[in-house]
Write a structure and sequence with these properties.
heterodimer; A: 130 residues; 60s Ribosomal Protein L30, Chain: A; five-stranded mixed sheet; 3 helices; B: 124 residues; alpha+beta; 6 strands; elongated
Chain lengths: 130, 124
């Protein structure tokens, strides 16, 4: 049986920011935010704690809980964003936040109705079942 | 006592005017440690406020131009706790700055410094 995060203990919290400059694609901004959050550290402790191998196999259960704050939380494609994570059981919560800012309209890149810069913030939390 | 590796953190820092590699290295370390929080130290490794300076080991590696000019003590002061040590090696980047910067500060380059921080815990 897989456990919920409330029944597990937190190992690490990482943060990142992602921007989609043209195209108003909030999923892309969110994916970049997650990529930044995970790209600046290596969780070597997971090898000891859960017996993680290079293929992502582990002896103990661990969970990656992602929270995305963006201006259009309903438009975030969770499955697409979570593909950025290389290993592990994962889940995503999308909340309102981040930033949007009026941008210059460029034909072929931006949506004519509302050209905007979209900025998403990601919080990536890793829980371990111990 | 067994030494277990917990995490590797990576950061980058610059000094735009003055070629102060110590300042750039401090910023690289600050950058590396400011991206994440490690509740796992308390939850899994038995680290507390009382024993953190004995149990937690922080090894800093800096890659910078002019490695001999880095003041290691000042760089390590950016790390709040743990048994700290630093290794400085040649690397990083010297990039040409503007003539205006040269006239004002007397230095022709800006410096970019890389930091890698290895965190270990001593466990029983």
């Amino acid at each position: 049986m897989v456990k919920k995060k409330e029944e597990m203990k937190k190992f690490v919290t990482e943060f990142g920011m992602g921007i989609d400059l043209h195209g108003q694609d909030v999923t892309k901004a969110a994916a970049r935010a997650v990529k930044e959050a995970i790209s600046w550290s290596s969780l070597t402790g997971l090898v000891d704690l859960v017996g993680l191998s290079g293929e992502g196999e582990a002896k103990r259960d661990y969970l990656i809980d992602v929270t995305i704050a963006s201006p259009y939380p309903d438009e975030v494609n969770a499955e697409e964003v979570l593909k950025v994570l290389p290993v592990g059981r994962r889940q995503l919560t999308s909340i309102k936040g981040g930033l949007k800012r009026e941008s210059l309209y460029i034909e072929g890149l931006d949506k004519p109705e509302a050209p905007e810069y979209i900025i998403a913030i990601a919080c990536v939390e890793v829980y371990v079942d111990i | 006592m067994v030494r277990k590796q917990v995490i590797i953190e990576i950061g980058s820092g610059t000094d735009l005017y003055g070629e102060d590699v110590t300042k750039a290295a401090q910023r690289a370390v600050k950058n590396a440690i400011s991206r994440l929080s490690l509740p796992g130290l308390v939850n899994f490794y038995g680290v507390t406020a009382d024993n953190v300076n004995e149990k937690m080991i922080v090894e800093v590696t800096i890659a910078t131009p002019y490695p001999d000019k880095v003041n290691g003590e000042e760089v390590l002061s950016m790390i709040p706790f743990g048994q700290k040590s630093i290794k400085v090696q040649e690397g990083g980047m010297l990039a040409p700055s503007t003539k205006l910067d040269y006239d004002m500060f007397g230095t022709p380059n800006l410096v970019v410094v890389n930091a890698v921080i290895n965190v270990y815990v001593e466990t029983d």
